[in-house]
TrEMBL record:
Listed CDD domains: NUDIX_NadM_like
EC annotation from Swiss-Prot or TrEMBL: 2.7.7.1, 3.6.1.-
Keywords: Hydrolase, Nucleotidyltransferase, Transferase
Statement: the UniProt record of this protein carries the keyword Nucleus: no
Pfam families: CTP_transf_like, NUDIX
Descriptive protein name: ADP-ribose pyrophosphatase
Similarity field: Belongs to the Nudix hydrolase family.
GO terms assigned for molecular function: hydrolase activity; nicotinamide-nucleotide adenylyltransferase activity
InterPro entries from the UniProt entry: Cyt_trans-like, Nudix_hydrolase, NUDIX_hydrolase-like_dom_sf, NUDIX_hydrolase_CS, NUDIX_hydrolase_dom, Rossmann-like_a/b/a_fold
Length: 347
């Protein structure tokens, strides 16, 4: 059913979401936006992430699913644009979002623009970051959780819930996706995470894990490891791991660095090269649960690159040129790209 009408309240409505996957609630909001505006700009977030059970579908796949939900006439009035994430810098994300809107609409000061969404919980605070746009707070008729859709999909339980929760064309797309190798990898990750959380379910209170990560910069290169196992098997990461009960954070970081990379620089040299440290504590930074990491920057401006070799939890350790790192956001584990960006922006 087309939403075309000669009378529109707004020149454009902005609809921001992850759409992992698009579901009936998204469609209800989208149709409401189309009824109110001449044009709807959908901004898809998390477009620069590797596949995980939280972000299983690429930007192009989500754009394809969104298009499948609309009539041909409505698709003519909808644009779909990618916006990358910035886990620890809302200012960056805000500018990128403004840039995406300007790229679609051109000069916006003379246009009547609105932002549509629903303030369901603390994660919806972004809706208040754009005071120049009127906020349309609209709740979908049915409260559908994309998280539950993903859980049901990767557990391969009865598909009755998934089939109910998403429009028919999206369900057909998901059924085809289940036949692809990417689905098998995601299913394996889902099983690992479920088992990991089950192992801690008997704890008398929610568990918070403490980890350390090492950012070693040497002669214009950064030291990365490729993960051997779930979660994030095959992704690149900063060397690091969990803190033992009997060690301090800095000691844990140097130990994990050596275990995963075979880096044999003397400990006094490592400690002397320590230039910065920072806590990274986004509540959803890890699929394993609440995980707070303490990251340490070790900087060697000059010299020959020391020999490294993957071991322990890493199947490979490698010195990566910093200009190459800038292109690796979509193959980096968890928030490790953002952690690296934080430190490197200050060097």
């Amino acid at each position: 059913m087309s939403t075309a009408s000669p009378q529109k309240r707004y020149d454009a409505v902005i609809f921001i979401g992850r759409f992992q996957p698009p579901h009936r609630g998204h469609l209800d909001v989208l149709l409401r936006a189309l009824a109110l505006a001449k044009k709807v700009c959908i901004l898809i977030g998390s477009t620069d992430k590797p596949r995980t059970i939280k972000d299983p579908f690429s930007f192009e796949e989500r754009r394809e699913m969104l298009a499948s939900m609309l009539s041909a006439e409505d698709r003519e009035r909808v644009t779909v644009t990618a916006v990358q994430d910035s886990t620890y810098n809302d200012g960056d994300w805000l500018r990128w979002t403004q840039d995406a809107v300007a790229a679609e609409l051109g000069e916006t000061s003379s246009k009547k623009i609105a932002l549509i969404g629903h303030e369901k919980d603390a994660s919806s605070y972004y809706l208040r970051m754009f005071p120049q746009w009127e906020l349309i707070d609209v709740k979908a008729p049915e409260d559908i959780s994309a998280t539950e859709i993903r859980e049901q999909l990767f557990a391969e339980r009865s598909n009755s819930f998934v089939q109910w929760a998403v429009p028919a064309p999206v369900f057909a797309w998901l059924e085809q996706f289940r036949k692809r190798p990417e689905f098998a990898q995601l299913k394996s990750e889902a099983e690992f995470i479920a088992g990991y959380k089950k192992a801690w379910a008997a704890a008398p209170y929610p568990v918070t894990f403490v980890t350390v990560d090492a950012l070693v910069v040497h002669s214009g290169h950064i030291l990365l490891v490729r993960r051997r196992s779930e979660p994030g098997r095959g992704l690149w990461a900063l060397p690091g791991g969990f803190v033992n009960q009997d060690e301090r954070l800095e000691t844990a970081c140097i130990r994990e660095l050596r275990e995963e990379t075979g880096l044999k620089l003397p400990e006094p040299v490592m400690r002397g090269s320590l230039k910065d440290r920072q806590v990274f504590d986004h509540p959803h930074r890890s699929l394993r649960g609440r995980t707070i990491t303490h990251a340490f920057l070790f900087h060697f401006p000059l010299g020959e690159l020391p020999r490294v070799k993957g071991s322990d939890d890493a199947d490979k350790a490698q010195w990566i040129p910093l200009n190459v790192l800038a292109t690796m956001r979509n193959v980096m584990f968890e928030d490790h790209f953002d952690i690296a960006h934080h430190f490197l922006s200050k060097l």
